[in-house]
Amino acid sequence: MKSLIKVTLVIAAIFASTFVLAKMFGVLSIEQIQTWLEQAHQMSDVLLVMAVIILLFADLFVAVPTLTICLLSGYFLGFGLGAISALVGVMLAGSCGYWISHFYGEHFLKRLLKHEQQRQQLKATFEEHGFVMILLSRAMPIIPEVSACLAGMTLMPFLRFMLAWSMVSVPYVFIAAYSGSISSLSDPKPAIITAVGLTTFFAISWSVFKRKINRADRAMQISKTNK
């Protein structure tokens, strides 16, 4: 478990640093993204679809407000096209994160975890808990991208990764897009309720998951001590 925590924190710190840099240079703020999408909407729906996909794909490299973009996608494009556009972007980010880490992650792990035993421990731990970790990854920013990278680094089967990624992404995106589609500037309540509800649900689920993992880890340590 220590190896998983260490690698997770390092990858999260890398993604967080891109967010800090974006803030420092004043790019990819919520206001800026909303302005871009409004301008694209005025030009054509095709351009807006491309903008949504590119922004959500960019989340793999720099933290962007994924939920806000999904809500705005539904608001500007309507539920159907908005949901599909957002889902394409989210799926591209996840699958590319997996494959980049699949091919180049081993070198990264060798630099971070010097001993083979630590790397094997990481893979064993993620094999046991990785599927659920991906399912709950929308609990907070950055964690989805971290879990996708971990899946690739630990060589989780791609179909298994895509199953977990789809199980969380499809309802997440569709709920957000639908809420955005029935919201308006005069009545933003559906979008606000959805944002708060999704964040709260995943945060509580993640907290329960962490406690379960901690109990299992303590039980294992006690078992080793008794031996």
TrEMBL record:
List membrane-spanning regions: 46-64, 76-100, 158-179, 191-209
Tell me where it resides.
Cell membrane
Instruction: For this UniProt record, give its keywords in alphabetical order, as a comma-separated list.
Output: Cell membrane, Membrane, Transmembrane, Transmembrane helix
Where is it found, in Gene Ontology cellular component terms? plasma membrane
Q: How does it sit in the membrane?
A: Multi-pass membrane protein
| Lineage summary | Bacteria, Pseudomonadati, Pseudomonadota, Gammaproteobacteria, Alteromonadales
**What is the protein name given in its UniProt record?**
TVP38/TMEM64 family membrane protein
Family designation: Belongs to the TVP38/TMEM64 family.
Q: Which residues form the VTT domain?
A: 64-181
Keyword Transmembrane helix applies:
yes
Q: Give the Pfam families listed for this entry.
A: VTT_dom (PF09335)
